[in-house]
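Worked problem 6 (solution included).
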Amino acid sequence: MLATLAISLAVAGALPDASSISFSEPVRIVEVDTAKLKGELFRLAWSPDAREMYLQTVERDRAGSLKDAHNYALALDGTPPRRMDAEPEWAAAYWTRKSAQAAPARPTFRITVEDRQQRLTSTATPMGGDLARGAPEAGSGGGEISVAAQLEGLTVTTDLVPLDGGPSRLSSSAEIQAIQEQAGAPSRGVRIELPLADVTPGQYLVRATVRRGRETLTERVRDISVRAGTRPAAPDVAIALDPRTVLRGDVVHKLIAALDARTRGGALEGAARAAAAARWSSIDAALPATIPASAGADASTLRGLAAFARAEYPAATTALGAARDADSGNPALSFLLGWAYSGAGDDRAAISAWRHAVVADPTLVPPYLALADAYVRLGETMLARQVVESGLRTLPHSPELLDRRERLRAR
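Solution. The predicted structure is:
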């Protein structure tokens, strides 16, 4: 069989505004006789100079799991595909760009993600391969079958395959958790563990396959990096606080980004830019001698960030406390203030700050985890479980909260 690749080729150079792109008629670029290739088509990428293309094919075993991957270079002059030992670096970079949520040169032009739960009750409701083959979304007749029943009898297997080709390094079965009723609809979590002790460091593809009997219902694929070293023990309580770990987290990153945008052109611009660049030691020097009254809360935040980075936690609690008092609805400030109290050894004050963060934004996962760890340190395991369960009522599919719940159940 011939696979015709008809793709529009963008001119190299500055990325255009994605919202202004128009599409012309597709042009045939190259034809590939798939009968002469091993496996099925899986991945395609352009080279940076647009002179050739990269094609990856994969082979599967009888159960549908990945067994092997093959790499080919495609010239545009019609010559047969050329075998490659590994996926080129530019192909991985190409797919990183292609997988981005925002469009080139237009960050606001983005793919929106919607998560919803829907109850399906008809026995004629198509599942798995039937839906992929074009079956209608609903049928008529027959009795009713609950979604919970549809979640029974499932198996999940995972395979680890080198990204640059070769046979599967390992395959394992996942642990399927009990059915949980969340937001009025049943769901099941899956815990996947891959023993990597004998796996060579490098880039791999992990594929999780959900099946009922011999029918494949869905698959999920993710690229991962395996690095040399030993797996750290997962502590049941928080380890010694490293302030830069907190500062590099997503919650504080967004706090600083908002502060940086808000202070552009103002008296605090230099100090905010230093914080955005993680130049913590430069923040205090960049603050002006006279702070406008309207910028007092932002100045306190910047002083608190600088003190926190130096592990001067009492000074950090004073500055961040003043900032939080001026902006009590900011969950990121409460979260950071909690860590400052924790660093100062005041777990009770830290708990109060983290609870404030949860109330301000119940969709933030880190405050729930910090609260749970603090209660464990205080010997209040039951309270830690209650915090995690509270988080799961809002975020029923959070892998971090689900994992923490399992660890707390084992205590």
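Discussion: The two ends are 58 Å apart (CA to CA).
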